[in-house]
Write a structure and sequence with these properties.
12 helices; 69% helix
């Protein structure tokens, strides 16, 4: 059974996420294209900036808290000391999210292009699937990331790439050590042979 706090959170969270997603992906459903920035860009910054700011704040807060407390968030004994392995993992999560997925994409361009930081222009999002591959062939940075950094990281780090560095893995690892996140993983996650077979479907797509 979900607690009252969990029910209130879900009641408020789901509509908020859906509403924000519609504004982020389809702002022209609500206002004309030339009014998007004036209507939805708080302090002159795009919705993607504020989304990433919140995302990074959550990840870095939880990862930093785990490291500073020095207690293992796993298992029943919460007084157990954080292992050196887990400490390195959460330090990696903290800095990977803060530096590579926040400071580099949002602050480095500002330092190099000479434009005002609080004056983002609206650029319609490209929702085509090929955009992720396309950048690898048209941008030096995209090429290095797609064909050099990611393959080397996976080759040398294996599955740790997702749980130590990848942005989505950062959030999963961070939320997974919270009380609600741990409860969801331990009580709601499908297990068994059927769930394992269903998981393979993702590789087909």
């Amino acid at each position: 059974m979900r607690s009252i706090k969990e029910k209130i959170f879900i009641f408020l969270f789901l509509p908020s996420v859906i509403g924000f997603y519609l504004i982020y992906k389809y702002p022209t459903l609500f206002v004309a294209e030339d009014q998007v920035a004036n209507t939805f860009y708080f302090l002159g910054k795009s919705t993607s900036f504020w989304y990433n700011s919140l995302y990074t704040l959550i990840v870095c807060y939880i990862a930093g808290k785990v490291v500073l407390l020095g207690k293992s968030p796993y298992g029943l004994d919460k007084s157990k000391a954080l292992s050196p392995y887990q400490k390195r993992k959460f330090i990696s999560i903290f800095f990977a999210q803060l530096v590579f997925f926040y400071l580099v994409p949002y602050y480095v361009p500002f330092l190099t292009n000479g434009k005002s930081f609080f004056a983002d222009e609206y650029v319609p999002l490209n929702k085509n699937a090929y955009v992720y591959v396309y950048n690898g062939f048209t941008s030096l940075g995209g090429f290095i990331y797609v064909f050099v950094l990611v393959p080397l990281s996976v080759w040398f780090l294996g599955k740790r790439y997702c749980s130590w560095f990848c942005a989505c893995g950062n959030l999963a690892e961070a939320i997974g050590v919270t009380k609600w996140g741990n409860k969801w993983v331990t009580e709601k996650t499908p297990r068994g042979y059927g769930a394992k077979k269903a998981e393979i479907i993702q590789y087909v797509f």
